[in-house]
Amino acid sequence: MTFRKVNIAILVLAIVIFLLVLHHNLLGLSDFLKRDVADSSPLGLQPIDFIPEAPQRLTDEINDQEIPVVITASDDRLGGVIAAMNSIYHNTKSNVVFHIVTLNDTVDHLRAWLSKTALKKVKYRILDFDPRVLEGKVKVESEQADSIKPLTFARFYLPMFVPHAEKAIYMDDDVIVQDDILELHNTPLKPGHAAAFADDCDSTSNKFAIRGAGNQYNYIGFLDYKKQTIRKLAMKASTCSFNPGIIVANLTEWKLQNITKQLEKWMTLNVAEDLYSRTLAGSIATPPLLIVFYKQHSNIDPMWNVRHLGSSTGKRYSPQFVKAAKLLHWNGHFKPWGRTASYADVWEKWYIPDPTGKFSLIRRHSEISESK
């Protein structure tokens, strides 16, 4: 009788253990599903492709901190994205994950370029940007229609791309990185600041460009101070602007301060009141950022955004200065995959030819002849 009671006790104990294990597994599944649902965005920013395997050289490293880098990819500029990613990947041992924001018509081309070249081991995630989020927020003049691209505004939605990250880097596609991206990621942000930018007036590269630039690097070059809505903000017109092509973002603060909603508010107001300067000094995405981050942003080391290589200013840089730069930025009309950009040869060292043949560099006939 005693032996039978012992057997029953053992059976009951086994059932209890089984139920506890089952409960634990169900909780784990529930958490997984919650994370999966959280990755979906109401804006249609859906992950299309993801390579989760870390390259072998990363798995051996002690520092496994993930560095999210957000970059946009349009088909006509895809070579820029490839060169930027390649330069970052080969200059760091950190665990970088690229969040590539693009439109549906670019996805197949991008995936083929990544999977058939030396970048096939890079960790990346492709996200489809839904242009409908910009309805009613962008005023398109007939003469500007070709220059205004939906992806220009992707930087306004950074928390949507990396919802679980506390910090992320955004960068334009016309850059290359010549140092460890971990240093840029570690840029200190002051308490309460949601982003860090490179100020235009204080930048190392602007000592070459500021002379004769007029209002190009001040708030008045981007905003119409004749409008009452702008004047009410009490922002000094002479305030130095900043370049939003490189952003180090504190996404926790970004979400707490509802930065995206603030930016959308000023986009909508501009459609109604035409608040931007008629002689806009830079990207159409810059004015809302200048308003929202007025005296509320931290600074990036100017050597991490050495710009103007896409304008005549870049021709004034010495080879030594270009070599010392940690990040080179071809902002301006002339891109390094085109004919007349300064130091295009430096950029081209990181370019990987398109295996599909759809994208090719545009070079002057004399350059082609010299290379033969």
Automatic annotation (TrEMBL):
Topology in the lipid bilayer: Single-pass type II membrane protein
UniProt-listed CDD domains: GT8_like_1
A Pfam match: Glyco_transf_8
Molecular function per GO: UDP-glycosyltransferase activity
Database matches in InterPro entries: Glyco_trans_8 (IPR002495), Glycosyltrans_8_dom-fam (IPR050748), Nucleotide-diphossugar_trans (IPR029044)
Keyword Heme: no
Domain of life: Eukaryota
Principal location listed in the UniProt entry: membrane
UniProt entry keywords in alphabetical sequence: Glycoprotein, Glycosyltransferase, Membrane, Signal-anchor, Transferase, Transmembrane, Transmembrane helix
Gene Ontology CC annotations of this record: Golgi apparatus; membrane
Cell location: Membrane
Family membership noted in the UniProt record: Belongs to the glycosyltransferase 8 family.
PANTHER family attached to this UniProt entry: GLYCOSYLTRANSFERASE 8 DOMAIN-CONTAINING PROTEIN (PTHR13778), GLYCOSYLTRANSFERASE 8 DOMAIN-CONTAINING PROTEIN 1 (PTHR13778:SF3)
Protein name, per record: Glycosyltransferase 8 domain-containing protein 1
Designated gene of the protein: GLT8D1
